[in-house]
Amino acid sequence: MRYIRNRKGLSFIELIMTVTILGILATVIVPFTQMTVKRNKELELRRSLREIRTAIDEYKKAYDDAHKGKQILNETGYPETLEVLVTGTDFGGEAKSTKKKFLRRIPVDPFNRPASGEKPEWGLRSYKDEPDSTTWDNSDVYDVYSLSEGTAIDGTKYKDW
């Protein structure tokens, strides 16, 4: 006579094996997910820097076009602040001028997010500053950099990008 066992559920060994396999998968997936999040933030930072720097270059080009042949003492042609790129400027050239805007908004540094209601903060350099300067003389905005002290996946500092 054969006994037919009616099995319902998992045995203790099967349960232990399942939990072990899930634990191993979790230890692999969690660091991968963290790296993906960091990589996405780095891509966002590169896009933000490129967007601001492109707007600064377009501002300079528009300034130079509006002031062709005119030498204006003590003016570099770069915006006074980042807000000028958003609010717009009337360069007052020879042709009928209108206010020209270069950014819809100032992009956010994903590694240095502002508190709710505050403006994004960036490190600024003027035309007169050294390329690696961390102080700004408030004369114009020639370049921007991240204020984050973090280190990128490739080992460089975000503030050096």
UniProtKB/TrEMBL annotation:
Segments crossing the lipid bilayer: 12-32
GO terms under biological process: protein secretion by the type II secretion system
Keywords: Membrane, Methylation, Transmembrane, Transmembrane helix
Composition-biased stretches (Basic and acidic residues): 116-131
Positions of region (Disordered): 111-133
SUPFAM superfamilies in the record: Pili subunits (SSF54523)
GO CC term, one of those recorded: type II protein secretion system complex
Protein's UniProt keywords contain Membrane: yes
Pfam families membership: N_methyl
Record carries keyword Transmembrane: yes
Name of the protein: Type II secretion system pseudopilin PulG
Organism of derivation: Geobacter metallireducens (strain ATCC 53774 / DSM 7210 / GS-15)
Species lineage: Bacteria, Pseudomonadati, Thermodesulfobacteriota, Desulfuromonadia, Geobacterales
Gene that produces this protein: pulG
